[in-house]
Amino acid sequence: MRTKVAMTFRALFALAAAAAVAVGATACSGSNPGSAEAAAAATMFHDDVRSGDVEAACGLLAPGTVEELEEGEPGSCATKLREVDLRATSTVLQSKAYGSDAQVVLDEDTVFLVQSGQNWKITAAGCTSRGERPYDCLIDGS
Amino acid sequence: MKNKPLVTNGLSIGFGLLFLASLTGQAFSGLAYFNEQQMAANLEPVGFWQYVTSSSFAVDVSENWQSEYLQFFLLIVLAVWLVQKGSPESKEVEKRGLESDKDQMIGQYAKEDSPAWAKAGGWKTVVFSNSLGLVMGTIFILSWLAQSVAGFTAYAQEQLENLQDPGSWTEYIVSPEFWNRTLQNWQSEFLAVWSMVALSIFLRQRGSPESKPVGEAHDATGVQG
Questions:
Q1: What is the pTM (predicted TM-score) of this model?
Q2: Which of B160, B164, B175 should we substitute to test contact with A (largest number of A Cβ atoms within 10 Å)?
Q3: What confidence tens digit (pLDDT) does each residue in B75-122 have?
Q4: What is the ipTM of this complex?
Q5: Which chain B residues are closer than 8 Å to A12 by Cβ?
Q6: Residue A13 is part of which domain span?
Q7: A2 touches chain B (CB under 8 A)
Q8: Phi and psi at residue B208, to the nearest 5°
Q9: Are residues A65 and A4 in the same domain?
Q10: Which residue among A120, B111, B150, B175 is the one 20 to 30 A from B224 at the CA level?
């Protein structure tokens, strides 16, 4: 009788261990974008703006940010983006992703991003720190 | 009479299935809620596997684990010394404390079918004598650590949404936000245990081992139904 109880518990334990391994394996195979992808998106945005490909840069912005930038003039994102005085950046200093939001600190800018499907979209750029208060951003769709 | 394993393990299996069903429900409702917010912001929705492997889901799943384990850990350990006359959650008033080796059937008082470490004596018996508390306490500490990581992720995400710096985990665990979440969970668990201990003195649930037998006196202690 004791052996049977022990066997049942061993079986339950094995089942729990298998479930834990399955959960762990699933967690490692997720397709969520991370901080490296956020840094790549922020760099690409700055490269597009610097090279004058503002249409491509607009494609990297979150829809809410495009709306804010266009200020009620749909389709004017590229024109408006040309007018923004973004400082040229060359190096990624730090990239952090938490849940569906990310922050990329570049040498001359700080960029905020949000997850959209399997990609990152920029919610704010041209941001300056104000300490405890929210960043002051030239492009802001938060 | 011999019963089938499904019957003899009904309580473990029942709660195991309830846990899995709730977790599955949480995964689907959490995905729907997450995508509702994505759609509202004109962002692309995420898929099921993408959601269940995200930190957003991990945060929601592990949020309350620590307080549940703390509740059982404290009840198991404190009930060694603290008693409540009339409650089936308590042992008899005279049995306060660790009790004798004879009462606990350890060492030379072990029975033929006692677990090996109860018979062994020495450190093995000491460890085995406290194994339930040790394991529940360890799970509590680990799940509290998990909650601090999960809570920090949720807090950092909120900070980023507001265009603020996310801060660090070490800042988070001394923040009012972390302690507010923690104590909010703890007080609700302590209230539930207190209610169970006190209400079970005067109320009954026929057939439940969590209650005294229906006809048992209100002041009878250490009796299960």
A1: 0.81
A2: B160
A3: 999 999 999 999 999 999 999 999 999 999 999 999 999 999 999 999
A4: 0.81
A5: 9, 12, 16
A6: 1-30
A7: yes
A8: -90, 130
A9: no
A10: B111
